[in-house]
Each structure stands twice: as C-alpha cells, then as structure tokens.
Prior knowledge:
3 copies of one chain form a homotrimer.
Chain A: E1 8-9, H1 10-17, E2 20-22, E3 28-29, E4 31-32, E5 42-45, E6 62-66, E7 77-80, H2 83-94, E8 103-104, E9 109-110, E10 115-116, E11 121-122, E12 127-128, E13 133-134, E14 139-140, E15 145-146, E16 151-152, E17 157-158, E18 163-164, E19 169-170, E20 175-176, E21 181-184, E22 189-192, E23 195-198, E24 205-207, E25 212-213, E26 218-220, E27 227-229, E28 234-235, E29 240-241, E30 246-247, E31 252-253, E32 258-259, E33 264-265, E34 270-271, E35 276-277, E36 282-283, E37 287-289, E38 294-295, E39 303-306, E40 312-313, H3 314-325, H4 327-337
Parallel strand pairs in A: 4-5, 5-6, 6-7, 8-11, 9-12, 10-13, 11-14, 12-15, 13-16, 14-17, 15-18, 16-19, 17-20, 18-21, 19-24, 20-25, 21-26, 24-27, 25-28, 26-29, 27-30, 28-31, 29-32, 30-33, 31-34, 32-35, 33-36, 34-37, 35-38, 37-39
Antiparallel strand pairs in A: 1-3, 2-7, 22-23
Amino acid sequence: MSSGPRTYRLGEIVARLGGELIGDQDPEIRRIATLESAGPGDLSFVSNPKYLKHLTGTRASAVILARGQRGATRLPAIVCDDPYAYYARAAQLLNPEPQAAPGIHAQAVVEAGAEVASSAAVGPFCHVARGARIGERVVLGPGCAVGEEAQIGEDSRLGPSVTVYARSVVGKRAVIHAGAVIGADGFGIAPQGGRWIKIPQTGRVVIGDDVEVGANTTIDRGALDDTVIEDGVKLDNQIQIAHNVRVGAHTAIAAFAGIAGSARIGSHCAIGGAARIMGHIEIADGVTVTATSFVTKSIRSAGTYSSVLPAEPAQEWAKTVAQLRGLERLTGRVRELEGRPKPGKRKGKR
Amino acid sequence: MSSGPRTYRLGEIVARLGGELIGDQDPEIRRIATLESAGPGDLSFVSNPKYLKHLTGTRASAVILARGQRGATRLPAIVCDDPYAYYARAAQLLNPEPQAAPGIHAQAVVEAGAEVASSAAVGPFCHVARGARIGERVVLGPGCAVGEEAQIGEDSRLGPSVTVYARSVVGKRAVIHAGAVIGADGFGIAPQGGRWIKIPQTGRVVIGDDVEVGANTTIDRGALDDTVIEDGVKLDNQIQIAHNVRVGAHTAIAAFAGIAGSARIGSHCAIGGAARIMGHIEIADGVTVTATSFVTKSIRSAGTYSSVLPAEPAQEWAKTVAQLRGLERLTGRVRELEGRPKPGKRKGKR
Amino acid sequence: MSSGPRTYRLGEIVARLGGELIGDQDPEIRRIATLESAGPGDLSFVSNPKYLKHLTGTRASAVILARGQRGATRLPAIVCDDPYAYYARAAQLLNPEPQAAPGIHAQAVVEAGAEVASSAAVGPFCHVARGARIGERVVLGPGCAVGEEAQIGEDSRLGPSVTVYARSVVGKRAVIHAGAVIGADGFGIAPQGGRWIKIPQTGRVVIGDDVEVGANTTIDRGALDDTVIEDGVKLDNQIQIAHNVRVGAHTAIAAFAGIAGSARIGSHCAIGGAARIMGHIEIADGVTVTATSFVTKSIRSAGTYSSVLPAEPAQEWAKTVAQLRGLERLTGRVRELEGRPKPGKRKGKR
C-alpha cells in the first residue's frame, strides 16, 4: 500500500467540488474534523443547526456551511446546498484510497484457469479458484477465498478473510469488509419423517455496482434462482440476507438487519439496525423501517414503518407488561360497563 | 474440485427416488427450476397449491406433483406424497457435492501429531494443530483452523475460514459454512470489586452427526461441562449458541437466533429467525418459536410460542405505544367506572 | 503451544488464593467441576444456595462455600466471601493459558517496517502490515491480519482469523476471539441525489487494557474521532459497536448487543444479549439493560431498564396483539363511559 492523506488549499477544494468560497482561499487543509476537535489545518462543517453553537471557539481553519448559515462565522467558509454531502466529498478528496501494488502475492494461491487482471492486487493467503475472474485494479486483502467461477468487478476492494463462494458475481467498485461471506448456502431444508433433508442451493448471489458490504455480513446464494443486490446498495455490518432476496438499488441497510428468504425490498429504502423483514413479502420503493422493527407483511406504499418498543425503568415496564396481558380482560370489563356482556361470559366475573 | 451437475432421464430419477411416473419417461433432466423460470431440460415442482396456476405456461420438461394434483398438467409428472421433499432429493441427485482431490495442500500446515485421513482434502492456508484428527473424506476449505485435539468426523465439509477450537468434536457429514466459529470461550466472567474476572472455559463443544452450521455462526465451548449439538440439527447463519447449551436432535434454528447459556432446547423444535432463548431454561420437544420472539421461561409442552410485534405505519405505532404507556391509568379509570376505586387513589383524577 | 492444566494440593490453592480451609488440606485437585459432574480430584463450588441440595451425593474432593454455608458439607471445604469469584480464580490457577513458542511462523508474512517483539508468537498465515507493532508475549492465532500502524499491546492473544484494521490500537492483555473485526469502516454514507456517497472513516478504534472481544464481534473505526473501548470491558460474541461509540470501563456486554453510532455507554454497565442502544445517546454509569431491550433515549441514572416482551402461546399472543391494536378505540370507549366524548367523535360509534 502507498499514498494516504493529501493536502489542498481551501481554494483548490472549492475548484474541484464547487460551492461558494467566503474569505481566504489560502489555508492549507490537511483533514476534516468536528468543530470541537478541529485544529489548524482542519476543515470542519455544520450539517445540523444545533451544532452552530460550536462555531464559537472552534480552532478549524475553515468551515463548510449551508447557504442559510453564511454569516455564522468569520472563518473562511465554503457555502453550499448540503454541507453533509460536501463533507463526504471533501473527505474523499483528502483521503484517497491507498493504492495497492499490483500483483499476486508470492503466498497467494491462484488456481489454473482463474483470470486475474494484471492491475489487480491479490494479498497473501488468498485462494482464487479455477474459473474465477478478478477484474482490473481489484484489491483482495489477506486471506480471502474466491470460489470457482466467481467474478469480482473492476476497482472492487475486499478486506481480510472475505469469502466469495463459487459462481457469485460482485460488480464494480464494491467495498467488502473483513469476514463478509457472499454466496454460502441458503437455509434450505425439507422435513421428512422427522428429519431434515438438505436442499442443494444452486442459485447464485449477484451484486451490482457501487455496493458496500459490512464486516461479517452474510448474503446467501439462491435456492434455484439468484439472490440479487442491485446497484448502489449499502449494507452495514453483521447483516443477514437470506436466499432469493432482492434488494433494490440505492437502498441502505443498517447493522444486524435480517431479510428472510425471497423477500423483495424496493429501491431507495432505509432499513434500520436490527430490523427484520419476513420472508416472501414485498416492500415498496422509498420505505423506511425503523431500527428493531419487524415487518411481517408486504408494504405497498412509501413511508415509515415501526414496531419499536422503547425501554423504560424495569419496574414500570413490568407493570406495562402485566397490563398488556390483562388487556383482554380489561376490554371485557369495558364491554360490561357498556351493558354489552360477551355471549357466554358470566356477569360479575372479572 | 471436480464433478458438478449431472443429467438423468426422468425415468431414472423415479427409479432411484420412487414416486409414480405419469407420461413420457425419456425427457433428459439437467436441473431443478421454479415453474416460472424453468425451460427445456428442467424439472419443476408444486409444493404449495397456490402455485398451481403457474403450471399453465411453464416451459419445464416435467413436474413433481402431490397425489391430489395428478391431473393438473399434461406435462410428464412425478406424483408423490411430498413434492417438497422429493424436490430436495432430486436436487441432491442432480447436484452432487463436488469431490475435492484428497491430500494436504502444499500451503497448509499440519502439525506433528495431528492425524489426517488419506482421503481427506486439506485446503491451502489451513492449520491443523497437534493432536487434531481429520476423518475420511473430510474437506477443509481455504484458511480453516482446527485446534489441538479437535476432531472432525468423516465426510464433513468446512467452508473457508472456519475455526474449530481445541478439543471441539464435530460429528460425521457436518456442513459448516464460512466464518463459523466452533468452541470459542463462553462468556464467563465473575464480578469482584468492580472488575470482571475471566472464568476459564474448560468444557468442549460436541456436535453430533448430520449437523449443518451456517456462515458466521458461533457455538461457544462449555464453562465446565460441554455445549452439545445433537444429531441432525440445522443451524442457519449468524446464530449464537452460548456455553453449556444443549440443542436436541433434528431441531432447526433460523438466522440470528440466540440461545443463552445453559438453556436446553428439545428435539424437533423450530426456532425462528432472531428469536432469543433465555439462559438456564428448558424447552420441550416439538416447540416452535416464531421469528423475533423472546422466550423468557421454560416451555413444558409442544406448540407455537410468540411475542412478535408486527410493524405498522410509524404514526399509528406511535399512538399505540402512547396508549400502552397509559394502560395502567386506563385500567384505573375502568376501575372507577366500576365503582371500585383503588385504595388511596383520589377520585376524579385521571 | 505447550503446558495446559496443572494440579495443586487443596492447601496450596488456599495458600495462593486465600479463604479458610476446613478439613483435609491434602487432596490433589486437578480441575473444577459442577457438583453433579464432579469426581475424585475435582474441586466444586456453591455460588447459588439453590444448588446446596447437590452437595449430598457429590463425588467432588472438595468444595468452595460461602461463609454462611460453612457447615453444609463434611467434605474438605474452602470458605470465602464470594465462591463464584473464588471459582474463577481457582480455575485460572488450574488452567493456565497455554504458552505459545515465541517467533514468527515460517508461513506468516511480516512486512518491512513492522515491529514484532521477540517474545511474541505470530501464527501461520498471519499478515502484519508495515508500521504495525506487536507487543511482548502477544499471540496471533492462524490467519490474523494486522493492518498498517496498528498496535497490539503486550500479553494480548488473538484467535484465528481476527482482523485488526490499520491504525487500530489494542491494549494489554486483550483476549480477542476468532473472526472478530476491529476497525472496519463505520457505516458513514451521505445521501445526494438519490444515491449514497461514502464518507471516508478516518478515525480509529482504541481499545484499553484487559478487554475481551468475542467471536465474530465487530468494532468499527470512527468517522473523524475515535471509537473507544475503555479498560476492562468484556464483549461477548457477535456484538456490533458502531463508529464513534465509547464504552466505559468495566462494562460487560452480552452477545448480539448492538450499539449505534456515537452512543456513549457508562462504566460498570451490564448490557444484556441482543439489547440495542440508539445512536447519539448517553447511558449513565451502573446501568443494566435487560436482554433484547431497545434503549431509545439517554439514561441519566443507574438502574435497570427494559422493554422485554416475553413469548406466550401463539394463540394468546395473537389476542394480545389484536387488543393492543384496538387500544385507542378502547380508550375512546372508556372516555364515552365517563361522559367525556372526544370532540368530533360520534356518540354510539365504537
């Protein structure tokens, strides 16, 4: 690996990324930092008005602000439509991905019949099986396993110990973090006579372009047809995507979310952490599911869906649960008060 | 690896797997496919009557049907008791496990005093520690670690980067997917003076025959006695089995389920995805726990148990949560309406 | 690896660990065992009075008892303040960590510019990148990856296939189990024009001393500032710690718990299995969160917090959920009974 952080004059950043420069264009910017931790050479940003108060006293050399905040500081400022997105772009500029030296490490094993592009970097202890294809500028971290006839698209980067099972397809510019497992068998079992028969999982995983897969996330291969992750999907750590799921383009899914078999998630959805999606259902485009919620049936229209139970002091919560269990009885009591006793219910019982 | 899919005449499949053949026995079958995606050479199946409608228009060469559906198509058909189980068997026939070439890869490390059967295949970058025993026809994928005195039974197959810690025992015909960890320390800590003392975990993990373990699933070793997974258990991805748990034979557990320490799960249970089982409790044979439910006390009889909260539109859900928090007050109001004011409660307050 | 279990006379154990010895000091103790599974040579313990009944009939050679239980057996006994902590200490004495032979395995790759202490043991298939520092007596299991400029403090032990990304800092005496991933990118994405822009994650993970990290647990690096795990924290398996989280000293967190971005957990907390902590909130010192609960807002004072829903037979549970959904209507009916119809609500409707 080489390269690493670069520095830019503030004016150079604006020349590359746009926005309006207010004040001195000369400050040399070395990194991005929060208002509170910034020092000289740092570019900071205000993406939420509640942090405007930290502008006073920041030691940043410059600040990214929304248009409506243009007068909020005397520091050199970049004024733009969306300071958070601008911060992301500026951080990419200042922190280019390290370039790995191309080549196959002497302690990697590439089987005959695998194709590895000459600009790709295959790390030590990687195994690339027969028929696999590794695209241009792909980086495989140490200890990755790429199965037979699997494909990794150009400019994709795999962290250490990533497994891509046979025939899986990963698109271009993927970022896959350590320990992720792409294309393990789906959980296909058929009951017979009190035992389980394993159902061979003969579909694939097909991942589009510009997808990120978090550490230790698992995406299972399809039973018959494929499991599909469309372009631009972002997956956090420790997510489970079961067989034959389809995740629509540009959907983001947070850690621990689980998508059960054959569910179809729309495009531009946001699935919160530890949310669960039942199998064989469909979720429309543009749906938000809040963290920890469990979607048990199809959702036909965009919007936010939830079944969050917020924690309370345990003694209060215990009372709530007790009340919940008594709800049917309470309803009966209200019915009696209304003079409409339930058929067969003995009056006076509670 | 070699081999891969095979082809059979339809009549050959029936000769091997049973069932009643209706129509032409000659079609050559190359694979299984769903009714909708099938083409010539494909065998399809109807395991759920709601998919019977897809029979019209399928391009499959033949179909597996239940006895009651025998007249549902003019295509060649296999009629049987359980089309889903038949599909599983036929898929196994058509997709035999690839045979790995026996031997220890030149880039594997097998320590002195380990026993590796001559028919076993140890992949590159595997480490087999002193005293470990690898049975006949076992396949270790790339990058597996098998600890001291661990045992892997014959015909078992481990995916890439599987860890089997020291003294763990894996039975015959296991399938263990990438990233699974067998026999890491249980979470044993004792509080003393505001700090935690680590309790050495000296038990083992003992896994029976015909067990499947999903990708990135973890099964901890026992504190003193063993953690036990009985024969025929099927575990999906990213499951956590804590120390000293016992899972009964032929129980199936879906992804993300967590079984806390010393819980005992019966045989022939079905534990849904992301279900949680409290520690130190017992669950009877034949229990089904629905996905995401939390079992907090022992279950003494077979049946289905649940604490699922289905997601709703967030605004409606927020009202429900507010109502839930007001339940105790509502009960008080009903009590007052009934003329039974709670002692000490001031009348008229609500 | 060498060493393994040792044996001690009962009197030697008391000489080293304290406590009051009652009866024969000569029994040779080989291991710790539960009262029920113990045999000759075993030391057992009673940490919970409900197990006192098992004292009758145990075959243990000696027993650890609380002061109040001193007359409970005729077996040789160690009487102490806290039998569970004593058990932990005795188990450590009897089961010293195996000593790995120092040195870098011939099949490990240590890049130029990495520093590996001469007493450290680097296993086969490990990759130690440029600028990384591996402390005295550190043990790296097979297949670990330690990134550029990462640091592993003295006496730390990493299991197989652990990833420590670039610049991460691990303190002294850490125990990190197989498949854990330290320092992968946090889930930082900014929306722009219907797509997601990746935000470079330039902070680090900084882990204090005496921390344990369970198998397949993931701890993400900070976006700008660091993610911090303080001294003495104990993390179980398959936990997710998001970017910029801080976990206070001596807090213990059980399996599957998830801590969202920028949350701050106090010291001496106990977070139950599969509990979830919302991002950007603070939890005071000494807080207990029960298993599966979801903390959605800051907790300012010590105590126990919960949102546990215990599973019930599914038919009963279905009624409860139906009642829950009808709660708003029920409240309206009570309001009408009280003679206070809701504005705009038609009388008589239910």
